[in-house]
Structure formats: structure tokens, C-alpha cells
Amino acid sequence: MPLRDVLIIKQMRIEIPEGVYRPAEDTFLLLDALNNACIRGKALDMGTGSGVIAVYLAKKGFDPVLGVDINPVSGIALRMNSIKNNIDNTIFVNCDLFSSIRGRFDLIAFNPPYLPEEIRGLANVAWAGGLPSGRRVIDRFLLDLRNYLSPKGEAYLLQTERNGVQETLDLLERRGLRGDVVAETRLMFERLIVFKIKLR
Ligand SMILES: C[S@@+](CC[C@H](N)C(=O)[O-])C[C@H]1O[C@@H](n2cnc3c(N)ncnc32)[C@H](O)[C@@H]1O
User: Fold this and answer.
1) Domain range for 21
2) Number of domains in the chain
3) What is the CA(98)–ligand 1 centre distance, in A?
4) Separation CA 81–CA 106 (nearest Å)
5) Which pLDDT does position 189 carry in this prediction?
6) CA distance 187 to 160
7) DSSP state of 128
8) Does residue 15's CB lie within 6 angstroms of at least one atom of ligand 1?
9) How far apart are CA 116 and CA 114, in angstroms?
10) Cis bond upstream, residue 64 (ω within 30)
11) Burial 144-183 (b: 16+ CB within 10 A, else e)
């Protein structure tokens, strides 16, 4: 598998194969938010990409950690990066969101594709969130989320302001969930936000 890059992130060595999302500002903001999570137990990293968040959660003591991605190459990346960082409790599931997932999790993290761009299969699945507002994957994730959170479970969802903050709060309300903004950062053209979400 040709390597595109090697990064050192929070003392982890993360190798990025061709065709897998290169961790960026959104990844780093979500990692910062996860650093403050006090809960432990079973974790799920939705859209695991290189596996950087899954490996980080395993290093923080979550066990096991499922990495889910629609892109099968992510499975190779997660396995490779787990080995490089002496982690042996990550499991990869190749599926569309929760479609092959059973059970409940104490922590669910998701750095989704959120840019308002038409989704063209695996070519841009890492960043394209559909037109007009980039919410296609976010909304499907939130519709199912409550069925996969343990009673005290926490989900950390990143999005951009352009996706609509009120839209997320309204959907959470309709699904019996509560969301608080726990991290944010302003980039040149975006304001990235992390919601911490719990069952009501
Ligand atoms: C912005 S990248 C984040 C990658 C990594 N978690 C990170 O933070 O660096 C979004 C990831 O979600 C995956 N993805 C997109 N749509 C998905 C879906 N419907 N089900 C599962 N994974 C999906 C992409 O393949 C990509 O790896």
C-alpha cells in the first residue's frame, strides 16, 4: 500500500496510505475535545480514516475501539497504525454508518464529511457532505445515534458552522438527544464546532 505521508500527532506515529483522509484541523479539534472526555468503556470511531482517533481512544483506555469506515482502505490504515502505536484492541468494520453495527457504546466520535459538495462515491467520500448544506451524512448519523449510545454514553460530533448549528440542535431535540458545543476553532473560511451529545 503506497504511503502518502507520515505524521506525528499527540505522540502517535500515524501513517497515511494513498486514498485515506490526511488528518487536518478538524481531526485535531476533535482530538482536543476528546481529551476532556471523562467516560471510559467501549468506543466507536465513525469514519475512522487513518484510524488516528481510534488509536487515540485506545491509548486513553477505551476497550475495545471499533473503527468504522465506508472506505475499505481505512481498514489497512487502522490496522497499520494500531500496530505502530502498540495497540491491540481496535477492530475495523467496513460499512455505511451504523448499518453493520450492533450494541451500544460509551463514546462515539465522528469527524464526518461536511463540505457542501455533491458526493461522487469513494472519490470524495472523505469530505463531501452533499448539496446544499453538507449535512447528508451528519443527518443520517444523528437519526440513528440514540440507538447506539449507552445510557451514560457521549458522542462527539464535529461540523462546520456552514452546516447549520440550529439545524443540528433541532434534529437532536427531535431525536431525544441533548447537544452542547464543547470546542470550536475559526479557520480562514470555516468555523469548526464540536458537539458533545448525550441522551436526554
Ligand atoms: C473527514 S474524514 C475523517 C477521517 C478521520 N476520522 C480523521 O478525523 O482524520 C471522514 C471519514 O468518514 C468516512 N465516511 C464518509 N461517509 C461515510 C459513511 N457513510 N459511513 C462510514 N464512513 C464514512 C470517509 O471515508 C472518511 O474516512
Assistant:
1) 3-199
2) 1
3) 13
4) 23
5) 87
6) 10
7) B
8) no
9) 6
10) yes
11) ebbebbbeebbbbbbbbebbbbeebbebbeebebebeebb
- Segment 50-76, tens digit of pLDDT: 999 999 999 999 999 999 999 999 999
In short, whether 67's Cβ falls inside 6 Å of ligand 1 is: no
Ligand 1 proximity of 25 Cβ (cutoff 6 Å): no
For a pocket test of ligand 1, which of 22, 70, 76 has the largest count of ligand atoms closer than 8 A to its C-beta?
A: 70
Q: What is the DSSP letter of 95?
A: S
At residue 80, the pLDDT reads 97
How far apart, in whole angstroms, are the C-alpha atoms of residue 104 and residue 76? Answer: 25
The predicted structure's pLDDT at residue 3: 82
The residues facing 177 across adjacent strands are 199
Query: Which CATH number fits the domain that encloses residue 178?
Result: 3.40.50.150
pTM comes to 0.98
- Which ranges of the chain have pLDDT less than 70? none
The alpha carbon of 76 and the centre of ligand 1 are apart by a number of angstroms equal to 14
* Ligand 1 center from residue 51 Cα (angstroms): 10
CA of 44 to the centre of ligand 1 (A): 13
In one-letter notation, the amino acid at residue 97 is L
Largest separation between any pair of C-alpha atoms in the chain: 45
Q: Per the structure block, which three cell numbers stand in for 178? A: 441533548
